[in-house]
Amino acid sequence: MRLAFILYFFCFFSHATTCMISEKQMSDWKIEYSNLFDVNKKLDQGSYRIIVTIPKEIKDEKFDNVAIFKGSLENPNFFATLKPFEDEGVTKVWFTAQSSVNEIYYLNFGYGESCGISVTLTISVD
């Protein structure tokens, strides 16, 4: 009886977490939605301050998360999530980068839950 009770709850609390998005779909989203993001690079005492203004939603999908990759998307040498903040009613994220090093960063923005919209911006620091 206990096993049946445990299996009963397991069935109700399980859900799929796999989401496969093709490279073509990612490219299409980048082309279609990258103009909604405003990237501002400002040089300040030897380093860049990069501030990105982001939309609160895309196609009725609410902003969910943002991650930063350094190096490459396939094999990054640095990865972290960024915490968005509100500035005068506008949602933004920011990070800093040294100006003396030519590096490429990728910001990946997620909208909606599970298999929502994903937009990747490429930011070069040179």
Describe the structure.
The chain is α+β, with helices and mostly antiparallel strands and 126 residues long. The chain has 2 helices and 9 strands; from the N terminus they run H-H-E-E-E-E-E-E-E-E-E. The strands form 2 sheets. Strands 3, 4, 5, 8 and 9 form a 5-stranded antiparallel beta sheet that branches. Strands 1-2-7-6 form a 4-stranded antiparallel beta sheet, with no helix packed on it.
What's the arrangement of secondary structure elements?
Layout: H1 2-13, H2 23-33, E1 38-44, E2 47-54, E3 57-58, E4 61-70, E5 78-81, E6 85-87, E7 90-98, E8 103-111, E9 117-125
Antiparallel strand pairs: 1-2, 2-7, 3-4, 4-5, 4-8, 6-7, 8-9
Compose a concise summary of this entry:
This protein is an alpha+beta fold and 126 residues long. It is built from two helices and nine strands; from the N terminus they run H-H-E-E-E-E-E-E-E-E-E.
Distance between the termini: 66 Å
Uncertain parts: 1-15
**Overall mean pLDDT score?**
86
Tell me the Rg in angstroms.
19 Å
Estimate the strand proportion: over 45%
Q: Quickly count the helices.
A: 2
The helicity comes to 10-25%
Write down the secondary-structure element order.
Answer: HHEEEEEEEEE
